[in-house]
Design goal:
about 550 residues, alpha/beta, nine-stranded mixed beta sheet, two-stranded parallel ribbon, 13 helices, 15 strands, globular, binds 3,4-dihydroxybenzoic acid
Length: about 550
């Protein structure tokens, strides 16, 4: 007779609200203080107004993370056009800076990590209005009370609040709030998808109300998502479906004790941010203006900058999985078959995608077809792909298949089984699902049941199911209570092992099956990074809005 293990679910906490009522105005005032700046792209100079540090909720829990920067081409104030857009028609580009589900400060147009034009600058050049939100994140802690205030679902609530601000100010601000396009990379890509999926859903309203968010819609037009670390409920299973046969890995440093690196993604660091709103700014705090966030960072999970082309090129030692890890991997991998078969996803011909008990099947072929398409595109653009020994070719040299084991060995594992909900309850995602008082928590039944820490006193525990639900776009795509974005641009590089390549493909395919327009590719040998090929991305955006 076995014993039954009860999993204790965390209670649903009351939505966090500010401890002091600050009552920031949520009315955008174009005549308020701004700075005029210029940027040069392709030898053309664009002049734009910078309205920075604008609180997007009336009563933030922490205004250092609940504000946005708004950048508007100067031409829109002179009744001029930028390209085909004018002040009424310009789409609004909404780049989040979320990395690692950490707190994030708002983007400032500048240089990309590689020294080129970043997405915000390029957006202005293409005539977009830029609204760049900061967000709370998993490590935010009130040092007085000791309570955490950036755990799930804070990040998505903040992004929705920023969107509500834009909708409520649509008539006062250049740009068309019915054409908001969200952009993000990694955890930022995940919350970009989540924002697109969850528009106007009532689950988030109590959280928005508690912060004094604008009473306006929260739906967006389109989603751009690079390497989204999403569908966290299924991500552990998916990871083992890929990497079951890879029994060594380089440790990811995204868990406990991770030290955020300074944000290096923008040419101007956060420290050079402009002045805070003053009393004549319209969007004026009635008491205290937000403090500049000089030292906050947007790290990637492993401390590598998001925009480098290698995912795990540090010199950390290879770790060999234990027998217990391998058994756990086996179980997770087997469960992925059920997960995929339950989804009843279809390919573009309407054929249902399934997996067999050994993990092979039409869904695997479908994922491989993305890898093959990426190889073919790279080859057609002049990239030498001959060293990719995992590509199987026929006598004519046509790629016919991918050697799955060899492909995954090539990409290489960067996380142990329980890649996101770690059995030691110490992954970054465990940190995301903590409560105001508990820093780390499981969010899958597997993670809770197979916990390896000493839980003899308490038994296994799991985050609140409602909170877990609110962090996964799969729960809102096609949900009649949500206004889903209708356009999706999804990229996940074939060399990225931060999650399973199937994770973005599952979310994108679900959106496609709902009839939405989905542009999804897995670019050849690209690692954990985003905002590459800006021209292609903005061409897609232009086409989507027209
Ligand atoms: C990120 C990377 C990860 O490996 C992860 O698990 C979550 C987030 C990131 O870079 O944002």
């Amino acid at each position: 007779v076995g014993t039954t293990r009860q999993i204790t679910e965390q209670p649903l906490e009351v939505p966090l609200s500010a401890t002091t009522q600050s009552n920031y105005s949520l009315t955008f005032d174009a005549n308020a203080t701004y700075e005029t700046r210029t940027a040069t792209v392709d030898n053309k100079t664009v002049s734009y107004r910078a309205y920075e540090n604008i609180p997007y909720v009336a009563n933030p829990v922490d205004v250092n993370y609940q504000y946005m920067n708004i950048y508007i081409p100067e031409d829109y104030f002179q009744n001029k056009k930028v390209g085909k857009y004018d002040a009424k028609t310009a789409p609004i580009f909404l780049p989040n800076s979320v990395g690692g589900y950490m707190p994030s400060t708002a983007a400032i147009p500048g240089k990309s990590l590689e020294g080129g034009t970043d997405a915000s600058t390029y957006a202005l050049f293409r005539g977009y209005v830029v609204a760049a939100p900061a967000t709370r994140g998993r490590t935010n802690k009130n040092e007085t009370t000791g309570e955490y205030y950036g755990k799930a679902p804070a990040v998505i609530v903040d992004l929705q609040a920023a969107v509500a601000y834009l909708h409520s100010n649509d008539s006062r601000m250049p740009g068309d709030a019915t054409k908001i396009i969200s952009n993000g990379t990694s955890a930022g890509g995940a919350v970009s998808l989540l924002l697109g999926a969850t528009g106007n859903h009532s689950d988030y309203r109590p959280y928005l109300n508690a912060l004094g968010a604008a009473d306006a819609s929260t739906d967006i037009f389109a989603v751009v998502a690079f390497c989204p670390i999403t569908d966290l409920d299924a991500a552990d299973m998916a990871y083992e479906w890929n990497y079951h046969d890879v029994t060594t890995y380089k440790k990811s440093m995204m868990g406990r004790g991770m030290v955020p690196l300074a944000q290096t993604g923008s040419g101007e660091s956060s420290a050079t941010k402009g002045q805070l709103p003053t009393a004549d700014m319209g969007n004026t705090p009635t008491e205290q203006a937000p403090m500049a966030v000089a030292t906050t960072s947007t790290p990637s999970m492993d401390g590598n900058a998001l925009s480098t082309n290698t995912s795990r090129n540090n010199s950390a030692n290879m770790i060999t999985l234990s027998d217990s890890d391998i058994s756990y991997s086996y179980m997770l991998k087997a469960q992925y078959t059920d997960y995929i078969n339950d989804l009843k996803l279809k390919d573009s011909n309407g054929k249902t995608l399934t997996l067999n008990s050994d993990g092979t099947g039409s869904f695997m072929d479908y994922v491989k077809s993305y890898i093959i398409a990426a190889a073919n595109r790279a080859a057609s653009e002049g990239t030498d792909i001959s060293s990719a020994d995992f590509l199987i070719k026929d006598a004519n040299g046509t790629i016919t298949d991918v050697d799955w084991k060899a492909y995954n060995a090539h990409v290489s594992r960067s996380k142990a089984p329980g890649a996101f909900d770690s059995r030691a309850n110490d992954a970054g995602e465990n940190n995301l699902f903590g409560t105001t008082k508990k820093d780390y928590e499981h969010f899958t039944v597997n993670g809770a049941l197979f916990d390896t820490t000493d839980i003899s006193a308490t038994g296994p525990a799991i985050a609140n199911h409602h909170i877990i639900k609110m962090m996964n776009p799969m729960n809102y795509l096609g949900n009649t209570g949500a206004t889903n974005a209708k356009y999706y641009y999804i990229r996940y590089g074939t060399a990225d092992s931060n999650t399973s390549i199937s994770i973005p493909i599952v979310v994108g395919t679900k959106a496609q099956n709902l009839g939405y327009s989905v542009n999804m590719e897995t670019p050849w040998e690209i690692g954990h990074r985003g905002d590459y090929n800006l021209e292609e991305m903005f061409d897609w955006m232009d086409n989507s809005v027209s």
